[in-house]
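Run log, item B.
One chain of 329 residues. Sequence copied directly from the ordering sheet:
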Amino acid sequence: MAIGRRQLISAIAGAAVAWPLAARAQATMPVIGFLDPGSSETSARKLAGFLKGLNSTGYIDGKNVSIDYHWLEGRYDRVPGVLADLVRKRVAVIAIPGFQVAALAAKAATTTIPIVFGAAEDPVELGLVANLAHPGGNTTGTNSFVQEIGAKRLRLLHELVPKAVRVAVLVNPSNASATEITLHDMQVAAPLIGVQTQTLRASTIGEINAAFAVLARDRPDALFVAPDGFLNSRGVQLAILAARERIPSSYTNRETVAAGGLMSYGTDLAEVFREVGVYAGRILKGEMPADLPVLQETKFEFVINLQTARALNIEVPPAVLSIADEVIE
């Protein structure tokens, strides 16, 4: 049936009104600036956790919120430029789930844009918040305590590999705070456990390869990888190189053990990312970071890869096996 002139004019007028409304809705969609020290490929499980947390508050990427992803792939030097761009864009929230170096830089870059972080150390001592229960200011997030369990992780590694006397410690010098704490913990704990440590440094893929060349030459008995966002993101590379050199290795994240590392002890990073996503959504709904208490992780997972242990001719002591939270066959 033909459309009358009056109906046609009404339809055109309606479309003319609807189009700018839709355009304005698109333009005013809140933006979350997301920073991660690794890559999208190596952080897929953690990212899924973040999106799950965000979705639980009613926000879906591309539908009613836009996420501006920044995968730094170990380039810590890019942090200032990325943050300056996010501040210039006036994003609604800056989410930094596993990258406390960037969280500190973000706090210095803006006092108005809400920041949700995931910290491996005490956020009060770091200066990220004034108080755990009442953060104040524009920052809040989670504390995973990863930096505070280094001595226990070294002890677990030694119990798993009791013949280990010389342990190489791999740190990322670009993460100065984590490096300082890790080396201090090793200096205190190593003599008590009865091991000697050797420090190796790597902040790029090439430097990781170079560090393993040193391992191949010096032949330490085990490898202890410091907690660090970039090193976590290179879990597959680390596991492959450790297998090639037949060196028992300890990490903070389960993903690297699933990729072939021997053991890990630490918090579930996917859960940390989920909690950061929840807080980001709550802030988008109108809550203030100052009123959201810093969440403190209380569950630590001890994971052992039995297949890797067999490949290294390591007989896992029954007492150690009995306290593992997960055993990967």
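Observations after the first pass:
- The first strand starts at residue 31 and ends at 36.
- The two ends are 69 Å apart (CA to CA).
Flagged for discussion on Thursday.
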